[in-house]
């Protein structure tokens, strides 16, 4: 990737922290200032002018400027190899920021600006390109720039983008006449309550500490690829550990990567559904083919320099990642002991590219829809660890009420009331808030549990300050309880 280093560096404390953590030697006469165009640049002032920046002549020490540029470029070229995701579509992507607005072509820099401004967005490029190619019978290779001019794609037909499009202002109950029923009463309490009452945080703590040691987990970089490979190996090691001595179990457990057009793959682990009767009727096979999804996203991003800035992502979304991983590990233990044998297929998803506009989850959701997969519901966990709150505020579980399914959200509240010590409180998180929106938008049930009822509570996210020391593992384990309860109660047919 070509990079104009000094015109792109951000004038904030997170940036300077990133540079220090990259072990770059920063001369003490560097000043970072904002430009009127909302970009940022590094200016090198003589030392005597540092205290009088306003009105100064902005003399530049070109020697230090060149040295810093060399160091930045060296860091990009050697430490973190960037993919060609944006080059595949001529460095423009089709971005939606509202369900009611047409998408717009935006450059990579435009997208980074949206993220810095806190604007939630969905990258819908692949959906539109697929529609365009299908209508023109030109195949499906979007990486070939010779097929068409990317700007020529008609985006006027906004309603044809997705199979379903729902209002971002309020939750709407998706038409579920063809979907399996959700439980309205929890019938596995005698099994689940002893399990969740004995949960510990040691494995979660160890995993998150290691996961956040990656410099960042940016989705189109070698860091993102390496962190995903590490996570998949950790999941596979759990499967090997807990299934090697339970060969008598009919439930098959697997994990694999789901690859995308960017470097970081998503991860899908699954417990294959097994009917509880010896009958081989079509009805039993149909139940086994139904899928229950528990999910989080694995990538992280530095809002200022996404591809190489430090982004440990402990809360966003390392917390969700290890929350559902602990649920997965616990279910493996129960499988080994003969206490977990779901009739339906129960899948755990760790999505790549959430920070790029819900890229990974959109790919997976569209794949399932194209292949007519029956998804009973998708329960998503994005940020479950931050628990610093005013003394007059209760520790709670947030239930997202927009771009979600009413019925599944009601079940989430029931799971919390039954299996967690925490009460629930509703919140809206806006358009394209997280990966639940990808499933909701193509017509599947989705719900999302959040760490509190205030989206702005954790100001550390997307920066080097989102570290393990800022999350509360005892808070996180309450969300693990929800995932375990969901796997039991929905993983078995009514």
Automatic annotation (TrEMBL):
Residues 286-484 form the Peptidase M28 domain. One of its GO terms (molecular function) is aminopeptidase activity. Its EC number is 3.4.-.-. SUPFAM superfamilies: Zn-dependent exopeptidases. Keywords: Aminopeptidase, Hydrolase, Metal-binding, Protease, Signal, Zinc. Gene3D superfamilies: Zn peptidases. The keyword Metal-binding applies. Its cofactor is Zn(2+). The keyword DNA-binding does not apply. GO terms for biological process: proteolysis. It is an enzyme of class 3 (hydrolase). It holds the Pfam family Peptidase_M28. Belongs to the peptidase M28 family. M28E subfamily. This is Peptide hydrolase.
